[in-house]
Amino acid sequence: MKKLIVLSLVAMTTLFASNYQQKPIEKYVTSMPKQALSRMEIKDLMHMREEEKLARDVYITLYSKWHLPVFKNISKSESWHMHMIKLLLNKYNLPDPVEKSGDKVGVFENRKLQNLYYKLVAMGEKSPVAALKVGALIEDLDIYDLNRAIRDTDNKDIKFVYSALRHGSENHMRAFVRLLRSYGSDYTPKYISKSYFDAILASKGKAFGFNNALSEIYGKVVKVYQLPGLRKGVTWWMMDVETKNKTIRVAIAPTWILPEVAVRAGDIVEIEGYQGMYSFIVCKLEDKTSGFEYESKSPRCKK
What is the pLDDT averaged over residues 221-250? Predict the structure, then answer.
């Protein structure tokens, strides 16, 4: 069974590595200016790298015990969280504690996390409900530590990555608690406040981005092209729009939703949308030159 887990982990890591260079979020983080690091910021980066590994490793182990799909799915997400911290370690030329341990499941440089791994696995192997409570507990701790790390850094790139990871952990928390309740059980937060916990569960879990407020763009199209999205296998129609003040990258829609766009370089366009993670995202598009119109059905486009 251990060999199977290791082989699965290797396959998962290879899959992520083959797609990482195409992720716009990485380009955004690496393009942000470097800022001086404090000792606390370095300590937090090292800790969060292994804390995300703790989540991944516990979920991999509990999936092998109970075969609940939620553990398999979220362990993949935790691999992505690990990768985003590694991106920052590489950017600032910091050593990677995961490399020191050989990235073996259940092996950590941090002794407290090592002991916590053993404790959480023992708890989660008692029953499926106990395993789901362990999942919620891990996300509870992760959100708490990410909030503290966000408070203790003034580096924009680090703060952005931590905020993205916290958003993911909140989604994971909702998934674990929802399943727990389907089993007739529940979870009480140990680290974050009860009011914060309730707010997370009440949230609909919108995709992470910069700003949900709608605004308008008017300008001339410089070029139209396609670009891989954040999700594997999804490609977006993109365009660069020259406005009065600057040129803005605009995401129109995934190609599976909008196979063709009747927008060309030189066209004048009017757009309503919001600032996303790496571009301005279209809610409504009107090409004043060709007459082409498009309106997104995304819930985020509702005022």
Answer: 90
Rounded-to-integer distance, Cα 146 and Cα 149, Å? 5
Is there a contact between 290 and 262 (Cβ–Cβ < 8 Å)? yes
Q: Are 35 and 182 in the same domain?
A: yes
Is there a single domain that holds both residue 192 and residue 267? Answer: no
Of 215, 196, 194, the C-alpha closest to 272 is 215
Cβ count within 10 A of residue 303: 6
Q: Are residues 269 and 133 part of one domain?
A: no
Instruction: Give the Cα-Cα-Cα angle 298, 302, 303 (nearest 5 degrees).
Output: 155
CATH assignment of the domain containing 133 = 1.20.1260.10
Residue 226, domain CATH: 2.40.50.1010
How many structural domains compose the chain?
Answer: 2
Return all residues near 291 (Cβ < 8 A) that are at least 6 apart: 262
Count other C-beta atoms under 10 Å from residue 99's C-beta: 12
Q: pLDDT of 106-150, one tens digit each? A: 999 999 999 999 999 999 999 999 999 999 999 999 999 999 999
- Which has more confidence, 258 or 210? 258
Q: Report angle CA 62, 118, 59 to the nearest 5 degrees.
A: 25
Predicted confidence (pLDDT) per residue in 10-47, tens digit = 344 433 343 334 366 788 888 889 999 999 999 999 99
Give a yes or no: residue 49 inside a domain: yes
- Number of other CB atoms surrounding residue 23 within 10 Å: 21
Domain extent for 232: 215-301
DSSP code of residue 235: E
Given 170, 202, 234, which residue is the final one in a domain?
202
Among 266, 258, 259, 261, which Cα is nearest to 289's? Answer: 266
CA-derived radius of gyration, the chain = 21
* Cα–Cα distance measured from residue 267 to residue 31, given in angstroms and rounded to the nearest whole number: 30
